[in-house]
């Protein structure tokens, strides 16, 4: 099970700097030989010229350059989002550069530079008559408020990543990201009122990327009452209310956030359908009466000790045989390793708390909290969310 740095076992003695450990298995020996080869400039040149290895060498070179240029690609995306290009092209169809430049208040030369860059990263496509239209990666952004909110939000993350080594050494202390996730700076839940709306709005914007995956992955109709812990302004319980009309619903979050949720749910006509309670899941008992507790994008914001405390609180609130469902992006997800391990690893580092976990890590945490029969539930897009469920023993 992944643990915080203070809980990790000490590493076994190894070679000091300047020494090298002898390869112990044939896999180690093969990897050591491969490392020497790929680090050799002469080998790289020969591989790029030899017909049998040329395609692989060129692909690796392109992948490496993509890592170098990745920040620029993300800024091309940010510029398109801020200029509302995707929405404009969806509404009016392909347009020439001159029209787009006037709409965006950019010089036409600058507009063409952005268009060429967006085509290169498949956000846009050139069309006939000197026009530009939506590309395969730009189209899905149309109407996707959650993803566009995250693109805007990344300005704070990029500010913290200007010096990634300093970020690692300080373990996220004093980062700009903590201002976006204020409970990281106010662990007792006592957020200043001016911060509550900003925090809650970002939570509300980011949840839709996960909600549909969770609703399609699990049969919520089998339950009588659901308690959504850390439910923000109630996006998840609202979707649950629409999907399962007979389901009784409860929401628990920080008092200031729960108050916003209560107002929003009342405006949707759900005030009588959803019981809303404020508190801290570290200090206050969770409401009882639900046979399913959901934790949607909650645990990965906390280290193992705090995540375990949340799961134990859920265990105490559930009746024997009750179920807990954890949904969040997970590390070591096949096909999404970069998202789970690299992106969320550094995102949570910049936030100042939390860690990405694999499904196996999650199952071990659930077991430590007293749950049994923990298992993965398949989702259609594991890049956005993995789901693990477990049961309280009868």
List keywords for this structure.
394 residues, alpha/beta, Arc Repressor Mutant, subunit A, Rossmann fold, 7-stranded mixed β-sheet, 3-stranded antiparallel β-sheet, 16 helices, globular, disordered N terminus
How is the topology of this model organized?
Blueprint (H helix, E strand, L loop, with lengths): L25 H13 L2 H9 L4 H29 L2 H8 L2 E2 H8 L3 H13 L3 E4 L3 E4 L10 H16 L3 H7 L6 H4 L12 H14 L1 H10 L7 E5 L5 H9 L4 E6 L1 H13 L6 E5 L13 E5 L7 H14 L5 E6 L8 H15 L7 H10 L3 E6 L8 E6 L3
Parallel strand pairs: 4-5, 4-7, 5-6, 7-8
Antiparallel strand pairs: 1-3, 2-3, 8-10, 9-10
Helix pairs in contact: 2-3, 5-6, 7-10, 11-12
Overview of this structure, please?
The protein is globular, with a radius of gyration of 24 Å. By secondary structure, the protein is α/β, with parallel strands linked by helices. It folds into two domains: 54-141, Winged helix-like DNA-binding domain superfamily/Winged helix DNA-binding domain (Arc Repressor Mutant, subunit A, Orthogonal Bundle), CATH 1.10.10; 177-391, Vaccinia Virus protein VP39 (Rossmann fold), CATH 3.40.50. Helix 7 packs across helix 10 (193-206). Strand 2 and strand 3 (131-134) form a beta hairpin. The strands form two sheets. Strands 6-5-4-7-8-10-9 form a seven-stranded mixed beta sheet, sandwiched between helices. Strands 1-3-2 form a three-stranded antiparallel beta sheet. Residues 1-12 and 184-189 have low confidence and may be disordered. The protein has 16 helices and ten strands.
């Amino acid at each position: 099970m992944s643990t915080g740095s203070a809980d990790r076992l000490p590493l076994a003695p190894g070679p000091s700097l300047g020494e090298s450990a002898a390869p112990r298995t044939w896999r180690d020996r093969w990897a050591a030989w491969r490392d020497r080869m790929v680090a050799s400039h002469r080998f790289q040149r020969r591989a790029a010229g030899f017909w049998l290895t040329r395609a692989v060498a060129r692909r690796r070179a392109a992948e490496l350059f993509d890592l170098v240029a990745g920040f620029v690609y993300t800024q091309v995306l940010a510029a398109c989002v801020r200029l509302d290009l995707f929405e404009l092209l969806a509404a009016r169809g392909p347009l020439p550069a001159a029209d787009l430049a006037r709409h965006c208040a950019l010089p036409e030369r600058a507009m063409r530079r952005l268009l060429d860059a967006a085509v290169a990263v498949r956000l846009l496509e050139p069309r006939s008559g000197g026009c530009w239209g939506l590309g395969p990666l730009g189209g899905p952004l149309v109407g996707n408020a959650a993803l566009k909110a995250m693109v805007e939000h990344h300005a704070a993350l990029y500010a913290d990543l200007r010096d990634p080594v300093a970020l690692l050494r300080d373990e996220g202390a004093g980062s700009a990201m903590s201002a976006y996730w204020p409970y990281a700076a106010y662990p007792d839940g006592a957020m200043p009122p001016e911060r509550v709306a900003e925090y809650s709005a970002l939570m509300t914007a980011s949840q839709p990327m996960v909600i549909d995956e969770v609703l399609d992955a699990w049969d919520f109709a089998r339950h009588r009452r659901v308690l959504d812990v850390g439910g923000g302004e109630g996006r998840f319980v609202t979707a649950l209310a629409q999907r399962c009309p007979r389901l009784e619903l409860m929401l628990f979050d920080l008092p200031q956030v729960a108050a916003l949720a209560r107002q929003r749910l009342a405006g949707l006509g759900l005030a009588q359908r959803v019981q809303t309670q404020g508190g801290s899941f570290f200090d206050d008992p969770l409401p009882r009466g639900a046979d399913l507790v959901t934790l949607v994008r909650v645990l990965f914001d906390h280290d193992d000790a705090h995540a375990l405390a949340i799961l134990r609180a859920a265990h105490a609130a559930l009746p024997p045989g009750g179920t807990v469902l954890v949904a969040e992006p997970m590390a070591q997800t096949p096909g999404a390793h970069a998202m789970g391990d690299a992106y969320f690893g550094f995102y949570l580092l910049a936030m100042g708390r939390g860690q990405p976990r694999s499904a196996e890590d999650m199952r071990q945490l659930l077991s430590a909290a007293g749950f049994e029969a923990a298992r993965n539930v398949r989702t259609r897009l594991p890049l956005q969310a993995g789901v693990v469920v477990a049961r309280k023993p009868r």
